[in-house]
Hints:
By secondary structure, the chain is an alpha/beta fold. Helix content is 36%, strand content 15%. It has helices at residues 35-48, 74-84, 101-115, 129-135, 143-161, 234-244, 264-272, 289-299, 313-330, 343-346, 355-368; strands spanning 7-11, 52-55, 89-92, 120-122, 169-172, 177-179, 189-190, 195-196, 211-214, 226-229, 248-257, 283-287, 305-310.
Amino acid sequence: MSGPALRLAVEVDGDGAHPAAWRRAAHSPDHLxxxxxxxxxxxxAENAGFTLLTLEDGALPPGATPDVVGRIGAVERAAFLAASxxxxxxxxxxxxxxxxxxxxxxxxxxLDHISIGRAGWVVSEEARPEAARAWDRPLVDGAAAxxxxxxxxxxxxxxxxxxxxxxAVIRSVATSRYLDRDRLHYVDFTGDTYAVKGPAIVPRPPxxxxxxxxxxxxxxxxxxxxxxxxxxxIAAVTxxxxxxxxxxxxxxxxxxxxxxxxxxxxxxxxLERHAPWTTGGRLRHIGSAAGLATLLxxxxxxxxxxxxHPLVLDEDLPELSRLVLPHLFERRHAVRPLxxxxxxxxxxxxxxxNRYAAGAAFExxxxxx
Length: 369
């Protein structure tokens, strides 16, 4: 199916999508969390032409013994990568099941400032009861309760991003004023389980609002910029994308590619001896780079982009960079991000107006009538 060129994203947490991916990594396990290794993966994704990289996260360690477990917070990794990349968008996963929206707002706004408008936010939830103990918070029990926390959390964070108008920082030497207090606003948000007064402690992000990504079955569509849709085949992905109701949709695609050393099937079988690679309902390609390129071309017009989950980053990312992405770019089935542009621009999303500034302008107009 033909359609607009795809935007390409890649998940780069850990050593890959398979829980035992570390067993085929090109580095020793003790190098997994080093700055050099994290920066190397991000540089490879940026040089390949990906529009966005995402960083999985959660309060609990990923995987289980005997596999390597360990993770540095996604926001902290994203901040490091924002300073060591120049074009690619960076979107950490930040659940708001237990996290304070005020702190999440500040962290993500800071990330957008560091990256000069290249930041996004992948919303997820903490479903395991152990996460409540890790946060020392009461258990948020059940899917409906977790959805409520995500809904309220996103609304509070978005309101806090707007609590500073774009020109609130005036830096007036003549009047010895750094801020115009009239351009800061209390959000006065009241949810089902908490309230947020505001305003934020960080100026409005360069993008106005960061790009918010998430699953439409977990987060209301009106709160998302990009829906991450799943399905075991193209028909299911097509139905999910059509039902998403969001400005943009990205298909989740798990990938294992043939390499010069082993076929994709052989690589998967090698890791399956140690742990299963559960499907989770996502579209999955196990095979050649040409086959993956054909699959992605078929998704044009179905979705606006894809987020790839490589089996093993050290093995699959070079194949993606060498064979898949150049093929898509050459045929204009996908596009590279442009230097100096924001993530919203790359995704064709307008910069939103500030809700409080618009309200203030409306009130002033009413007073003149």
